[in-house]
Specification:
The complex is a heterodimer. Chain A is of the alpha/beta class. Helix content of chain A is about 35%, strand content about 15%. Helices cover about 45% and strands about 25% of the residues of chain B. The chains are: A alpha/beta, B alpha+beta.
């Protein structure tokens, strides 16, 4: 599995936002595989390795989690709190995706234990700033791939 | 008021002490203390008394005077210019020395007085009813001062009381002295009686008819008759038949004023035994000199041996006798001279014997001795002959002589024995006794009290003149127990009982009871009776006085009544003042007034007027059951009742049945049947401060003339109190009603507020939810739009023709503007309801930050200058930043194209605030624009012309208001604008 680049877990229910995220990643030439969990429950299942996600070869633990707070069913806040309680993954960086740059929302993200935040939609520049700031060595760069909705 | 009460109280106390005969000084101290307590400043009051010889004054009262004062005034001459007291006693008028340091009358006494701390003094003479100066009442002050009219009045009042006290004391002393003298006289009388009783000779008194009047113990022993058996019987019982002629001779002698000496004869005892007796019979004369009887001394000489023994005894007696016993021969030459003679006349036996007795006889009386001898020679005996003799030293002495003839064995007179007793002292005493008895009676006649004397058994034998003057009786009516007729029958039994008890027990009597005056009225007297005893402790006489205390008693009773009235008034006043229930007030007043007026019953009628006319409502009733009125219906506005309900003056009828206003109305023409019986009638209106008549207090009594003027005044006072209380109660009721209304209203308001608050909270929550969805959900699709538009332009931009590219650009611009709007709305809502923390803010550095942050404000694009230093303000930094950034960016934005933007920032302190203004050279604003400028979406230019959301100044206004400040604009179209903000100074 050595050759397989570290996985990015994107927890986001809005397909537009998923598209724009993927587009930003592509624009920033990041080619790590992205697993999209469409709600909090799915994110928990994935992180716990429940059911189909027990196969860590196909569903490895992520190197970073991009987490939208506004999610149906289980809220993003609960997902974050849960992660911070799991010995195996409690140190995984979590970047919160917020709808606004209101101070209230930003404060809230940090309060819950987020490592950073991004105002949606994220841009390639913002992603590159993040990588630089956190010195993420696991990021795999490749040729920018054209994205279209069909590929999502 | 209080001061007068105090004075009256002291005066009363002093009068009581006077009546009780207590120590004068103690009584006077009460008066001085009364003055000192009543004068509001530091005062020393003193009383001086006039000495017995009327020459000087000596201190009697003045407890609070310095210790040395008494020494200072120990003997103050009554003379002009002797301080205040000496001068006032001399001049018999008030003397005021308002400054001792300068007063001429104090010249000789000044330094001592000032040394005692006495700086001013005034003195009032105490003058008795008979205008004698008794003493002075002096008042001292520590500072120069003169008495006020009040003080003078007060002291005059006390001076009058002092006069009474002093006079009483003086009289009391005199009386005591006289009584002591009288007692001595009594003792002497008794001593004589004892001598008579104790004599071994039978001593018998008889009248001129020979009837026995007195009979001593020796007579009883000698003749065997007891006093009871013989008194009132003829003396002839004792005379044997053959000697009855003797008695006729004796009586004849006596009537002629002669005495029979040593008639030796025979008398018979009760048991028939005959006795040899020697009889001396002397006439008894009344004060008029008339002979009213005889005293007879009989000596039993039946036993010769006894005579012999007696002779020997006599010889010894002669030798040792205190009486001078002198033997004379017929030439009046002294032949015998005993020791008594030596003592009486001062000559020794050796000097006297052989001398003529005439040496003892004062000049002008020389013929007396020969006459006595002549009488002796005629066989007469001279006994108890009172005359005057001269002692060796020339002093004349009163003597009582008894001269007897000395016979020889043949019966020839050969000389005389002469017993001479010095009676100088006895005579003086007798005279004094008589005088003292007269003086006592005279004295008792002059004292203001009624006085009398009674025998030991209570039989009153003498009254003073005052008694007869007061009672209008005559001595014969009063003698013995006749006094009972002037006593009040209600008190008499207890008086008699107690008097008899005191007589039996021999204890002093003291009691107060009424005695009827000549005018038939009874007045109260304090009666004191003291027993006088002889040396053996036997009561010899009772001395009684009756002191009138009627006025005192009446004053006391009036005082008690007044006090009780005041108490009831006070209690009622207190009760009704604290009472807020109308019913209770009215009941209290009715009860108290009924009690105080002496009414049988009282009622309060409330003045309520119904549509039909005047209907009166019974409110409370005292002294009769409510039914007594209830079944009669309400009193009507008859001529008798109506004035009271109209608030006219009180109506007081001695007898309502005789009142003109009574019985005027049909159908009853007077009281309805079954009405409580009313003769005395009193009605007083109860009128409020505002003049409204609340109602009336009505009182009734079945007897005539019960209600006095005083009762009317009391009720008037109570009605006024009641009116105030009723006013208060009404006010209180109104207040209570208002309070309740207010409470209800408040309650409703609170409920409303709670409801509204809840509604508001809901709204706020909805608003929050709304703004949340605005900021998140509304922007979400917007972001997608922008994202996809960007993607479209990036991926396919090259294939678009110009129109397609223009459309895409418009979509992007619209989305951008939409985002801007949303962000401003959010900013506004944050400012409107966000939490703020007020801290000192440096506006100058905020301006610098803002300039740095906005490229349009940089120096190359705009000229922004701060004209004067801006003080620190108290605010929320983020809001201050909002205001500054909005003002500055507006200032450079709204400007004529081609004009270089210039902004001048200046600050000006206005009290607690700082006014910071931003003056630009922009396009300016007209009045209409200025009005709507600060409203949300209140933009005044088309968006085409100037970019903006129209929310910025609304945010500015809201932010300033949240910080306790305000905003405004001064502008003229085309002449630039001045935007300002007022913020609190830090």
């Amino acid at each position: 599995m050595k050759d397989v680049a570290a996985t990015i877990l994107l927890v986001e229910d809005n397909e537009d936002d998923v598209f724009l995220m993927r587009r930003a990643l592509a624009a920033a030439s990041i080619v790590n595989p992205v697993f999209v969990a469409e709600d909090g429950q799915q994110a928990l299942n994935y992180l716990r390795g429940d059911g189909q996600y027990a196969d860590r070869a196909s569903f490895p633990l992520p190197a970073v989690v991009f987490l939208d707070l506004k999610l149906p069913e289980i809220r993003g806040h609960d997902v974050l709190a849960w992660i911070r309680e799991q010995p195996l993954i409690q140190n995984v960086p979590v970047v919160v995706l917020t709808s606004s740059n209101e101070p209230r929302d930003i404060k809230e993200a940090y309060r819950l234990g987020a490592n950073s935040y991004l105002v949606k939609p994220p841009t390639a520049d913002q992603l590159r700033d993040l990588i630089r700031a956190f010195k993420w060595g696991w990021v795999a760069y490749g040729p920018a791939a054209a994205l279209n909705p069909a590929s999502v | 008021m209080r001061r007068t009460e105090l004075l009256l109280e002291c005066q009363k106390k002093a009068l009581e002490k006077i009546v009780a005969g207590e120590n004068l000084s103690d009584t006077l101290e009460i008066l001085t203390a009364a003055v000192e307590q009543s004068v509001p400043r530091k005062t020393i009051a003193t009383i001086m008394l006039v000495s017995d010889d009327q020459t000087y004054l000596y201190p009697a009262a003045g407890k609070s005077a310095p210790r040395a004062w008494r020494e200072f005034v120990a003997k103050v001459p009554i003379a002009p210019n002797v301080g205040s007291c000496g001068s006032s006693a001399f001049q018999r008028e008030r003397v005021i020395a308002s400054d001792i340091a300068t007063d001429a009358r104090w010249k000789d006494y000044r330094s001592t007085a000032l040394g005692l701390g006495l700086r001013a003094s005034w003195s009032t003479p105490i003058i008795s009813a008979d205008k004698t100066v008794l003493g002075t009442f002096a008042v001292y002050y520590p500072e120069p001062s003169a008495p006020g009219p009040d003080e003078i009045k007060m002291v005059e009042m006390m001076t009058r009381t002092a006069a009474v006290a002093i006079q009483k004391a003086v009289l009391h002393q005199a009386l005591q002295r006289e009584l002591a003298k009288h007692r001595q006289a009594e003792i002497n009388n008794r001593r004589l009686a004892a001598i008579v009783e104790g004599s071994d000779d039978a001593i018998v008194a008889k009248d001129l008819n020979g009837i026995v009047q007195s009979w001593n113990g020796a007579a009883e022993r000698m003749f065997g008759y007891t006093a009871d058996e013989i008194i009132g019987k003829p003396i002839t019982l004792l005379i044997p038949e053959d000697r009855l002629h003797e008695e006729a001779t004796i009586l004849a002698q006596l009537r002629a004023g002669r005495r029979i000496d040593h008639l030796e004869t025979i008398r018979r005892r009760k048991d028939g035994k005959l006795l040899s007796v020697s009889i001396t019979v002397s006439p008894i004369r009344a004060t008029s000199g008339e002979i009213i009887g005889a005293s007879k001394i009989a000596r039993d000489i039946s036993a010769l041996k006894e005579v012999e023994a007696m002779r020997n005894r006599l010889a010894a007696i002669v030798a040792s006798s205190d009486d001078a016993i002198i033997g004379l021969d017929l030439n009046a030459t002294i032949t015998a001279w005993n020791r008594g003679a030596e003592r009486t006349f001062g000559y020794s036996a050796a000097e006297a014997i052989g001398e003529s007795v005439t040496m003892l006889i004062p000049a002008g009386m020389e013929d007396e001795e020969p006459r006595i001898l002549q009488r002796l020679l005629r066989g007469e005996r001279v006994e108890h002959y009172e005359t005057v003799r001269r002692r060796k030293d020339g002093v004349l002495i009163d003597v009582s002589l008894t001269v007897s003839a000395i016979h020889d064995a043949d019966g020839m007179v050969i000389g005389a024995s002469k017993i001479s007793r010095d009676i100088t002292e006895t005579k003086r005493q007798q005279l004094a006794l008589k005088r003292s008895e007269e003086e006592l009676r005279e004295m008792a006649n002059t004292i203001p009290q009624l006085a009398w004397m009674a025998r030991p058994d209570g039989y009153i034998y003498w009254y003073n003149r005052r008694w007869f003057d007061y009672t209008g009786t005559k001595p014969e009516q009063m003698e013995g127990w006749g006094w009972q007729s002037v006593h009040d029958p209600n008190y008499l039994p207890s008086v008699v009982q107690y008097w008899k008890h005191c007589i039996t027990e021999g204890i002093p009597f003291e009691m107060e009871f009424p005695i009827r005056a000549a005018d038939g009225a009874f007045r109260w007297f304090l009666t004191r009776v003291n027993p006088f005893r002889d040396e053996e402790g036997q009561i010899v006489r009772w001395f009684g006085t009756n002191t009138e205390v009627d006025e005192l008693r009446r004053t006391q009773q009036a005082l008690r009544e007044e006090t009780r009235t005041l108490e009831v008034l006070n209690d009622t006043g207190k009760t009704i003042a604290s009472e807020l229930e109308l019913n209770n007030i009215v009941q209290n007043v009715t009860d108290a007034a009924t009690k105080l007026t002496g009414a049988k019953f009282g009622a309060f009628f409330y003045n309520s007027i119904d549509k039909g006319g005047e209907a009166l409502m019974l409110f409370s009733l005292s002294g009769a059951p409510r039914e007594a009125f209830a079944r009669l219906g309400n009193p009507r506005a008859t001529p008798l009742f109506a004035p009271t309900f109209k608030g006219e003056p009180p109506i007081r009828c001695r007898d309502v049945l005789n009142d003109d206003r009574y019985g005027q109305w049909a159908p009853h023409f007077g009281m309805p049947p079954n009405h409580l019986e009313v003769r005395s009638y009193l009605a007083v209106p109860v009128i409020s401060r505002s003049g409204e008549v609340f109602g009336g207090l009505f009182f009734g009594h079945p007897e005539v003339g019960v209600f006095t003027e005083r009762a009317e005044k009391i009720v008037l006072g109570m009605a006024a109190q009641a009116a105030i209380a009723i006013d208060n109660a009404r006010l209180f009721a109104a207040l209570r009603e208002a309070r309740e209304q207010l409470t209800r209203h408040n309650h409703r308001l609170e409920e409303e507020v709670a409801e509204r608050t809840a509604a508001l909270r809901e709204t706020v929550q909805q608003l929050e939810a709304f703004s949340y969805s605005v900021s998140h959900d509304l922007r979400s699709p917007l972001r997608a739009m922008q994202g996809y538009a960007d993607a479209l332009l990036a991926d396919y931009g090259k294939t678009f023709d110009r129109t397609a590219a223009y459309y895409l650009e418009r979509i992007q611009r619209a989305a951008q503007r939409m985002d801007l709007l949303i962000q401003d709305v959010l900013a506004y809502s944050r400012v409107a309801k966000g939490e703020i923390q007020m801290t000192p803010v440096n506006v100058e550095s905020v301006i610098a930050d803002v300039i740095q942050h906005y490229p349009s404000l940089h120096a190359e694009r705009a000229n922004i200058s701060i004209l004067n230093p801006i003080p620190l303000v108290l605010g929320h930094e983020a809001y201050v930043t909002q205001i500054v950034s909005n003002y500055l960016s507006n200032a450079v934005k709204f400007i004529k194209p081609g004009t270089f933007p210039m902004v001048n920032v200046s600050a000006q302190e206005q009290g607690e605030m700082v006014r910071i203004s931003f003056r630009d050279n922009g396009i300016g604003l007209n009045a209409q624009q200025q009005k709507q400028l600060f409203q949300i979406f209140g933009r005044v230019y088309s968006e085409k012309k100037f970019e903006g959301t129209g929310i910025g100044l609304a945010i500015v206004k809201k932010a300033a208001e949240r910080m306790g400040g305000s905003v405004g604009v001064v502008s003229e179209l085309g002449a630039g604008s001045e935007f300002f903000v007022l913020l609190k100074k830090a």
